[in-house]
Description:
Layout: E1 2-6, H1 18-32, E2 36-42, E3 53-66, E4 69-80, E5 83-91, H2 108-125, E6 132-136, H3 142-149, E7 160-165, E8 173-174, H4 176-182, H5 187-190, E9 205-206, H6 207-214, E10 217-220, H7 223-231, H8 239-244, E11 249-251, H9 281-292, E12 301-305, H10 314-326, E13 330-335, H11 340-352, E14 359-363, H12 367-376, E15 379-382, H13 392-398, E16 402-406, H14 409-414, E17 432-434, H15 439-455, H16 457-468, H17 475-489
Parallel strand pairs: 1-2, 1-6, 2-5, 6-7, 7-10, 10-11, 12-13, 12-15, 13-14, 15-16, 16-17
Antiparallel strand pairs: 3-4, 4-5, 8-9
Amino acid sequence: MYIVQIASECAPVIKAGGLGDVVYGLSRELEVRGHCVELVLPKYDTMRYDQIWGLHDAYRDLWVPWYGGAIHCSVYCGWVHGRLCFFIEPHSGDNFFNRGCYYGCPDDNMRFAFFSKAALEFLLQSNKRPDVIHCHDWQTGLVPVLLFEIYKYHGMGNQRVCYTIHNFKHQGFGGPEILWATGLNREPYYFHYDRLRDNFNPFSLNFMKGGIVFSNFVTTVSPNHALEVQFGDYGYGLGHTLYLHRHKFRGVLNGIDYDIWNPEIDRFIPARYTAQTLEDKAKNKKALRERLLLQDVNKPIVAYIGRLDEQKGVHLVHHAIYRSLFKNAQFVLLGSATERGIGAWFAHEKSYLNDNPDVHLELGFNEELSHLIYAGADVIVVPSHYEPCGLTQMIGLKYGTVPVVRGVGGLVDTIFDRDYDPHKLPEQRNGYVFYHTDPAALESALDRAIDLWYTAPDQFRQLQMQGMSYDYSWNYPGKEYLEIYDFIRHR
């Protein structure tokens, strides 16, 4: 099968969050299974050019229709850790992708509307006719719209689209100018409630809604999150649209790349280990303490790795620091704030706790250090307000670091409470789960993890080993996506 991924990120060359990891990991898995996969990406000025091998001109004169004229683009080709990627560079005064950032510009909607148009124009002009186009998040929500309203009449009538939504909170909005720029034009047609009109603002087009309505199949990144977005608040206004299109909507759990996140081969940790040599994890714990200047004592280390923002349950992250210290555990945090107020809050906490030998707050992100924390910590907290899938808890399992998670999204699909899960046998349970958003709820799970470490170390080790036995690689998601591709090709 010939598959083209159209996305705004692909790790490690373009990575702002988990989207980049998923696009790369899924593409790699599909190739391992014998399929031809190509990726189409924007050519940002800030992407990691050192992660591209053999970057060269692939298509010099791509003219993309835009408003009443056309924008001249160059398309470059290169390999990102074995994946064949095409990078689109527009030559216009708009400087769509020369902004010193990936996202966060006031005209993001226009930037990615152009990218969606340019990606399809490139496929058309270069005679690429994939069996399936797989696009991701709001940035490419217009791809299925443009394909089925314009490009299918120009020789792309057999292409099918799978559209994956990683984060419903960011949906992409625009007015009539989006229609006139992309050549869709017909305002009354697209401002119809059954097409692109936003469910709550009649004067706005919704990119993500367009992706849902016009694609052949829609996925989100875990089965439980698929229920949450249809029937709860996490669809951010798109629940009814998803319900109307439920016949083509499914949750597919993300995977993680065990070539990168694997204590058996991890090049960033001083002591590699397996479930059978779990005692070597202690060497990484010692190394972590030395690096972060924590005292070397017989205590568990509780860790948090991730963004500091409302989505991640930042008030519970803060509470976990002090609760861990109260329970005679050490705490390590690695993360950067997405809002100035949260950044100032945690900078104050870092200053206040600076001389405490049992806590270290690392404000920022360091990929190498994250590997050492996963390998050295005993417990990892993931107290998210909402979490479509979550990779942190799956990585923690692989490293024998027991997850303490809030029961939302993909966390429910991957972590099963040691004491209370009714659907798993005791030997299948792998962590601790709480459900409410108050500090007492977090304590109900975190305390049990720390108490088990102190009172029953053999049982804690057994829980670590049970977690390490889980396979959350791309093997199963890859198989499921291929079934979806086959389904939409033959319907």
